[in-house]
Amino acid sequence: MAILEVKNLTKIYGNDENKVVALDHVSFTIEKGEFIAIVGSSGSGKSTLLHLIGGVDKPTSGEVIVNGQNVYKKNENELAIFRRREVGLIYQFYNLIPILTVEENMTLPVLLDNKQVNQEKLDELLRILDLKSREKHLPRELSGGQQQRVSIGRALMNAPSLVLADEPTGNLDSKNSKEIIDLLKLTQKRYKQTLIMITHDENIAMQADRIIVIEDGKIKKDEVLRK
Ligand code: ADP
Ligand code: ADP
């Protein structure tokens, strides 16, 4: 079953005198459980695409359908619920809340959703992400690799169907990058998730099931590496 359908997606920033076509009629389908790498030069439209899939921006035209839900037919309230439950976002610079501990950062999306924290899931993620001894620490007391592991935990706590990562290793050295990619692959299998990752690193892209190349807001190449 298709977990994601992107149909004729177009995003234009700015006004008539000063307009940027960031995405130009992009269409593709992603099956449940796939690991997709999105590559392309800086400014080609990758982040715009990821944000539109995650419901954090609005397209100029076209549709995004996640798990059968037409994302931009939702009202603001439904969209907020969609963002909390259906997608987990991971950023290059972690975007952790500095005054909250590791545990609090990870459980925040669940609490914002007025749900009980699943203590077993939290413990399991802390163990998998090797953060058990860091539970009560603040982000500034952690290394970059540890902070990114917290942000993976936060993205996964609500069991989203789509995990969206925007250059998750862009700020890490090669050892930490490998660790983060291995963890994303491991949790993707374990929780049967679909992983869409923007990366500049060819070695990382080659580990994906499929590579989508974006250039000037269009799909330049869409290649399946493994089934
Ligand atoms: P990438 O992630 O591939 O680097 P982006 O999606 O960030 O590309 O940007 C695509 C194009 O849209 C670029 O020309 C960028 O400058 C422009 N752009 C992105 N966000 C905005 C914005 N909020 N306002 C205006 N232009 C933007
Ligand atoms: P990346 O290449 O990692 O996407 P960018 O520097 O392109 O990072 O974008 C960082 C942020 O700035 C994004 O939220 C994007 O929407 C915004 N942005 C990018 N280009 C522009 C622009 N020309 N005008 C306004 N905002 C922009």
Automatic annotation (TrEMBL):
One of its GO terms (molecular function) is transmembrane transporter activity. Residues 4-227 form the ABC transporter domain. Keywords: ATP-binding, Nucleotide-binding, Transport. Gene3D superfamilies: P-loop containing nucleotide triphosphate hydrolases. SMART domains: AAA. The keyword Metal-binding does not apply. GO terms for cellular component: membrane protein complex. The keyword Manganese does not apply. Pfam families: ABC_tran (PF00005). PANTHER family: CELL DIVISION ATP-BINDING PROTEIN FTSE, LIPOPROTEIN-RELEASING SYSTEM ATP-BINDING PROTEIN LOLD. Belongs to the ABC transporter superfamily. This is Peptide ABC transporter ATP-binding protein. It comes from Massilimicrobiota timonensis. The lineage of its organism: Bacteria, Bacillati, Bacillota, Erysipelotrichia, Erysipelotrichales.
